[in-house]
Amino acid sequence: MKRILVFLIITLFSASFFSQEYNIVSNIHYYDEKVNNSDAYINERCILDVYVPKNVKNFPTVIWFHGGGITGGQKEIPEGLKNKGIAVIGVNYRLSPKVNAPKYIEDAAAATAWVFKNIKNYGGRRDMVFISGHSAGGYLAIMVGLNKMYLNQYGIDTNTLAGIIPFSGQMISHFTTRKEKGIDELDARIDEMAPLHFIRADAPPLLLITGDREKELLGRYEENAYMARMMKLKGHKETTLYELQGFGHGGMAQPAFPLLLNEIKRVEKLKK
pTM to 2 decimals? Predict the structure, then answer.
């Protein structure tokens, strides 16, 4: 059921987490050496940062894809996810028009596969990996989370993700993928580049978060509302939609972070 929030205050973690120390390891290549050496743009863009709690084991991890319309932006560790007792993986990916779809989705999948392969080495739980991002980053997260093809290439079942949490992500074909084909941004498509094309009952928990429908970019709330409805009709039991009343496309991320953290706590309790 859709939930409209006027004001959001959620206390999620005890103050002890705020005294926890963290390590950050920057600019790790998530493709192997052979691939990096074969393409200068991959070597430049396909890197990630790892932000992890020190001297802690079995923590959850959030893979975070930046926004920017798939044409800009840089990897980040969002302030709203720091000092919360979790690991955060900030990911860069290749951008249009230097590459076209599905290259940037493939990058998002490669970064996700790297996390599954390596997070235990940092102390994290492989069964508590969440995939998220804002705007274009949310689109990449849900494409990797719903279309099994991308992670299957690495021998990973997408259903091992603990949750998919796009912030204001596009659910129809992303406007940049349409622009690459000469299609207008208002000419909607639901094809192999659309998360809506891959609705399924057996997907990981799906938390959809958007800004206010009257303040959002294009029809972003309506796309997410349709996704939520279709996932439920398909038989998916763990789809939730939040509309953050009063917040626009860019401003909705900050009040959305507590919802993401609350979802991590919810899933963690279920897995204990």
Answer: 0.94
